Amino acid sequence: MPGPTVDPGARLLAVSAAGRDLAWAVGEQGLPASGTGGRPLALRWDGAAWSQTDVKHLSLNGSLRSVSGTSARCAWAVGEDRDGADRLLRWDGTTWRQTEYPGSEDPATVLTWVATGPDGAVWVAGQHEGLPKLLRRKGGTWAWTPPIPNATSATAPWRVRLGGGTDGGVYTVGDDLARWDEAGASANGASADGGKGKDKGTAKDKDKDNGVRAEGGWTVLPPVVGIRLGISDLLPTAADDIWAVGAAFGVGGPPGKPPGVVLSHFDGKEWTFVNGDTLPFKIGSLNAITDSGSSTGSARGPGLIGGWDFWDSSSAHYLRWNGTQWAGERGGANGVDAYVRDVASVPGPAGGAWSVGHSRNTSPDQTQFRIERYG
Is 180 within the bounds of a domain? Predict the structure, then answer.
């Protein structure tokens, strides 16, 4: 899909769709050859064309990492600010405005990803007071959850995903895979600031068979185990039906050795890998996954995975669920290497999906953003 003219050295990092005629994409532009020091980039789809929305008035020194919108007058974005705490932005139908939140005055606060639910709740993955947490907005009030219990890393989760279908959980994707449940937090007396209720305290439980740990509103999932393996995204359609995508570098290897793709499924007890030999490509990475975009609620299931095919990146390589297995599909070729960073389904009966990313194997100042549409 064509996009507006922006400064050279541009890439898109995230996309969100509210309907067939409304979507947002964010990233950065003006990257220097060193690869650092770009400026925020925010695009909006109005059903006919992509246009750039202005963020210069915010004086944001960094990129926009994530975006999520539900209507023409409400979208949220998070951005890196190299001059202080990360920013939380809201689109009001006309312009982007900065929103204050607990920790916005602390330069060490990190915000990485945002997701909005059908109930109007907004969830942001981040790091606050040196610990990985979720920032949530309900009823116009922002509050941090308690930190992920016994986290293996203090690094902020790089994504937050909302459970689909009958799953009301909120999932973090990072060094630790975890699920936050508001009902569980209330039942166990956990307060928004991490305190413990006087009656029941904080519940702790561990299932020795599958490694699932529960504490307060948190349930920590077992890790997807592999050598130098990282999970980039999750698609939770139920507590016992979760897809994970990523890449694993394995043992050693020469400099520049590419990773192998990772696709695994969680049935509520354990992770099961999909054999790479059965996939359309197995060398490269799987970077993002989205649902089918069905508007029927509980019928939503796996839909589309965006990846990078090491052996042939002349066009974007996708995996699409056909009801029984993951099948390969290719995007359009335009003479540059394609790298997908995010995919998003289009809600509504017409369905479809957006994909964003950028060119690869060029210097940062020559990078070109990329947008593709399915359906």
Answer: no
Q: Is residue 373 part of a domain?
A: yes
Give yes or no for residue 342 having a pLDDT over 50: yes
pLDDT digit string, tens, across residues 9-30: 999 999 999 999 999 999 999 9
pTM score of the predicted model: 0.90
What is the rounded CA–CA span in Å between residue 272 and residue 259? Answer: 19
The type of residue at 234 is L
- DSSP symbols for 220-279: EPPP---TTEEEEEEEEEETTEEEEEEEE--S--STTPPPEEEEEEE-SS-EEEPPGGGS
Q: In this structure, is residue 106 part of a structural domain?
A: no
pLDDT in tens, 150-175: 999 999 999 999 997 677 899 999 99
Identify the H or E element spanning 184: helix 182-187
Q: Please state, as a whole number, how many other Cβ atoms lie within 10 Å of the Cβ of residue 229.
A: 17
Number of domains in the chain: 1
Host domain of residue 311: 222-375
Determine, yes or no, domain membership for 195.
no
